[in-house]
Each structure stands twice: as C-alpha cells, then as structure tokens.
Write a structure and sequence with these properties.
Helix content: 40-55%
Strand order of the largest sheet: 1-4-5-6-7-8-9-10
Largest sheet: 8 strands, parallel, barrel
Shape: globular
Radius of gyration: 17 Å
Structural class: alpha/beta
CATH superfamily: Aldolase class I
Number of domains: 1
CATH class: Alpha Beta
Number of strands: 10
Strand content: 15-25%
Length: 251
C-alpha cells in the first residue's frame, strides 16, 4: 500500500487521544484544534469525561467525542461504571470506551465480565460502545473468548488496549479481534490502541484488516486507531507540517 494512501486512510480513522493524569483544559483545547487537520478531520477525540463538555463545544461538526469508563484498571463495580457512563453520555459523549474486567477474566471469573458488559451496554444505549479488552494481559484463547463475550453482550467495537500497559496493540491481537468481528454475524468494529506511532505501523494494520475483512470494510464506523503521536507522522506522510502537541501526551 502506498504510504500516502495509508496515511490518508488512517487519519480519517484516528481517535485523537489524550488520557494523561496531567491533562488540562488548555491541553484538551489544543487537542481539539488539531482534530480538524489540513488533510481532513479525524474520526473522534478521546478524552477523560470531565473534558467532554469542552470538547463538545470546540470540535468541528462531524468529529465525534469519545471518553473512557472503568479506566484504566477495569475493576470497578458494574453499578459504578454504569453511573460513570450515564454521566458521560449526559455531558455529550458520542462514544464510550469501557475497560473490560480483564484481570478477573484472566483468572476465570466470567460473571464479572458479563455483569459489567450488560451494565455498560444499558447505560450507553444509543451511543457507540467500545470494549477495551487489554489484550496484553490475556492469552490468545482468552482474547478470542473475551471478544466473543463482548460481542454477545452488545459491543459495537472491540478495542485492544488502554495504552497504559505493555504490550498494547500487537499484530497478533489485532488478528484475533478482526477474526472475532468477521465471524460475529453482525457489524462489529475493531479499535487498535497503544504504541501505534508511525504510518508504517498503521499501514500494516490496515492491510491486515483488508485481508481479513475485505477491502473497503475499514471505515470510521468499523475501524479506529487510538493514538496521539500517530497524527504527526500521518501529516508528514501527506506533506503537511505537523503541529506540536503539548508535552506529556504519550498515548
């Protein structure tokens, strides 16, 4: 795939992300202003829920507001997560990336996962629900099982990682998530996040999605990259001078 073609595709699928402890209104303001790039808009901006109203005011029409819940540990009670999601939706979030209880699931607790997913789906009704599986903490068999459970419970997207733990997104995990989406019997998207910083990386993941799902499947409704550092490299590949993001954004 030609690098510029891959860059243009990836930019339109980017959830431009800042999920750092030192995030401020000024930093999120700068992030939102970067979202309408010289090469076109990104898909969404993903930020902590406290910044959702600010992003809602600043973003150009068509750029979605995404936030996170049960983040990053994945160990909150379902009722608390549901409250968190309802508040984010009321504040204007279009999409919610909720962390799957991966630690409990890894040691055999399936009921915790089912309860959390059911609560998250009910609380996010009418919004896009992405389920963060934290694939780096699960075996390949567990990734597949968790992905299938998330699909059964109504996930709109399967997301690889929080970006807070390593390994984050990997080709092997991406393949397993795409395979689960391909056999789901309905439209299920895949979001890859954590450590994706170059156009070459994005191109390889797009090629994998094309191979498994078919050319043309990877659209904003079905495929995303969660990243911040990636944007500069995409813009450079498209011949645009990158804008410097405020320091501390390592997603």
């Amino acid at each position: 795939m030609e690098l510029a073609t891959a860059a243009a595709r990836a930019l339109a699928l980017l959830d431009l992300t800042s999920l750092e402890a030192d995030d401020t209104a000024a930093k999120i303001d700068a992030l939102c202003r970067r979202a309408a790039t010289p090469a076109g808009p990104v898909a969404a901006v993903c930020i902590y829920a406290s910044f959702v109203p600010l992003a809602r005011r600043l973003l150009a029409p068509g750029i979605r507001v995404a936030t996170v819940a049960n983040f990053p540990g994945g160990d909150a009670a379902p009722a608390a997560v549901a409250d968190e999601i309802r508040q984010a939706v009321a504040a204007g979030a279009d999409e919610v990336d909720v962390v799957f209880p991966y630690a409990a699931f890894a040691v055999g607790d399936r009921s915790a996962a089912r309860d959390l997913l059911a609560a998250a789906r009910a609380a996010s009704a009418g919004r896009t629900l992405k389920v963060i599986l934290e694939t780096g903490r699960l075996s390949p068999a567990q990734i597949t099982e968790a992905a299938r459970l998330a699909i059964v419970e109504g996930a709109d997207f399967l997301k690889s990682s929080t970006g807070k733990l390593q390994p984050a997104a990997t080709p092997e995990a991406a393949r397993l998530l795409l395979d689960a989406a391909a056999t789901s019997g309905r439209r299920v998207g895949v979001k890859l996040a954590g450590g994706i910083r170059s156009t070459d990386q994005a191109a390889s993941y797009l090629a994998l999605a094309d191979r498994i799902m078919g050319t043309g499947w990877a659209a904003r409704e079905t495929f995303r990259f969660g990243a911040s550092a990636l944007l500069d490299d995409l813009l450079a590949a498209l011949g645009h001078k990158p804008a410097v993001m405020p320091s501390g954004n390592r997603y």
